[in-house]
Amino acid sequence: MYENPYQKLKQYLEIPLLDDDRYFTPNIDTLVEAEKLFIPNPSHPIKFITAGIGKEKFPNHDLPEVIFMGRSNVGKSSLLKAIFNYVPELRIKTSKRAGLTKSAQFYGVGSKLCLVDMPGYGFGQPEWFEDVVHDCLRRRNCVRTFLLIDGKIGFQDSDDIALNALESYRIPHAIVMTKIDKATDARLLRNVLHLRNIKKSPIYCYRQPFFVSSHTFEGLGYLLAYIAHITGNLRIDHSDMNHISN
Ligand SMILES: Nc1nc2c(ncn2[C@@H]2O[C@H](COP(=O)(O)OP(=O)(O)OP(=O)(O)O)[C@@H](O)[C@H]2O)c(=O)[nH]1
Ligand SMILES: [Mg+2]
């Protein structure tokens, strides 16, 4: 839970893919601190806010928002469910069947931040998908978008299109490889290399991808710390030094 799976991949590389000094390297105390943000209590309720497909349905609040998008079935809702593991009453639905989540789902973490689970693109994609994504990404309080990539399957053409769109719309984003419990290290490395090849000089993409399993919770603590940090809820000394803010 508290380890960064990327550390394991590094041993296979002669030349590191990332310059570690420049990236997000929280220590264990910081990771434990960040996790507390996701544990509810009476003065810090974690709850479903609303679901909607039009901007008039979206909540009107000032909470910093983090959006989870990606292909249908990539594991967006499962990741939210894992993040909210301490809040089982949220009952986030997941399914083997692609296209389960049909609208943007907003979850509030006390008065600190809001996480948004999006419908997926690709198979089962609702016809108004692009409008919802567009409306959500354009929200003024959206601080980061996570683009989820299935770690076992790797980047598909639609993922490359999404990546390029995020860059050209100047939307600060980061990559999360999901289902790493099912992916080989070789596959994960290939995914990272692919990312490097298509993002030669990214400005809006955080260069360090995250690796998670929503089933085993590998990599989750590290992702939680990043979310806490980018939403202004966690100070870190040797933190994200990338040229996008935070
Ligand atoms: N092994 C494994 N399976 C996962 C993981 N995350 C999700 N899954 C499975 O992948 C399937 C799809 O998960 P969802 O979370 O519903 O995917 P989604 O991206 O929300 O899909 P849509 O709402 O249809 O866009 C489910 O059968 C999950 O159990 C993971 O980390 N490991
Ligand atoms: Mg879903």
Automatic annotation (TrEMBL):
Organism field: Caerostris extrusa
Residue span(s) of domain EngB-type G: 62-233
The gene coding this protein: GTPBP8
Cellular-component GO terms for this entry: mitochondrion
Entry-linked SUPFAM superfamilies: P-loop containing nucleoside triphosphate hydrolases
Keyword Membrane: no
The protein's name: GTP-binding protein 8
Entry GO MF terms: GTP binding; metal ion binding
Pfam families registered for this protein in UniProt: MMR_HSR1
InterPro entries the UniProt entry points to: EngB_GTPase, G_ENGB_dom, GTP-bd, P-loop_NTPase
Keywords: GTP-binding, Magnesium, Metal-binding, Nucleotide-binding
